[in-house]
Amino acid sequence: MCENRSKNYLTLPAIVIIMVEKQKGGHFTIYNQMYARRQQLEAEITSIEAQLAALPEGKLICSRNGEHYKWYCSDGHSSVYIPKDQQHLARQLAMKKYLISLLKNLKKEKAALDSFFRHYDPAHDEADSVLSQHPEVRRLLSPYFQPSDQKHFNWMNCFYETNPNYPEQKIHKTVSGLCVRSKSEAMIEAVLSEKKLPFRYECALRLGDTTIYPDFTILHPRTGSLYYWEHFGLMDHPSYCQKACSKLQLYTSHGIIPTINLIATYETKEHPLCNDTVQRTVKEYFL
């Protein structure tokens, strides 16, 4: 007989849904996007500075003469007329003028982001602090994130074999009471819990002679079919990417096919998983 973690079946208030979306998905995704933008700015600034170094000295001055313009190259003290047959020089100085203006804007944006990162510490998560430091609060909240259907509730709360490897990596506590390995997994868990979908975290799955532990095993609330959700979070690391591809091949060889009964999401440092993607995925497969 399975032992249930709770016997209360409550409806999730809208305010709690909003809180979860913001705490487990939104703000960290925005942080990653801002970090990626700062890296992009650094690359753009470096590129523009290199272009400026290759352009000629001086500043372009355009002086109107009736319906036409005359071009001059200024060193800050005096100006030298640029004849029409040296239009290429005028074009280079015009490009220089534009790039200098663009560079100022990019540096201002980077300075604003630098100020943000000096004052914001993503490691200090107030929501995680509440859950980790106040277990009774976590226990009281957990019924809000449980399936309403008794069979689904029992399936989700039965004992099952979980991944015994690297338990010290499970540092992110969720409102439903789980400890997961990453912010992205916490984001997925939050949406599954918000929608009251029955799931198991890192439940053992035997494929031939191999035992693996999918990130999430999800029981479809209408059909009763099992779906597996793997999130691959380091796809810009070659060795990790190779292992991810091998894992997908293992699934496929045992009839668990991407987009059919296997959900796969991916991210890189510059392209983190976002809450919108998780919401759309859950809606497509289960709602």
Topology:
Elements: H1 14-54, E1 59-65, E2 68-74, E3 79-82, H2 87-119, H3 126-133, H4 135-141, H5 150-157, E4 172-173, E5 179-180, H6 183-194, E6 199-201, E7 205-207, E8 210-212, E9 216-219, E10 226-232, H7 238-253, E11 262-266, H8 275-286
Parallel strand pairs: 10-11
Antiparallel strand pairs: 1-2, 2-3, 4-5, 6-9, 7-8, 9-10
Helix pairs in contact: 1-2, 1-6, 6-8
Features:
single chain; 287 residues; alpha+beta; 2 domains; four-stranded mixed beta sheet; three-stranded antiparallel beta sheet; 16% strand; elongated; disordered N terminus
What is the count of structural domains? 2
What would the principal axes of the Cα set say about the shape? elongated
- Please give the largest β-sheet: 4 strands, mixed
Mean pLDDT comes to 85
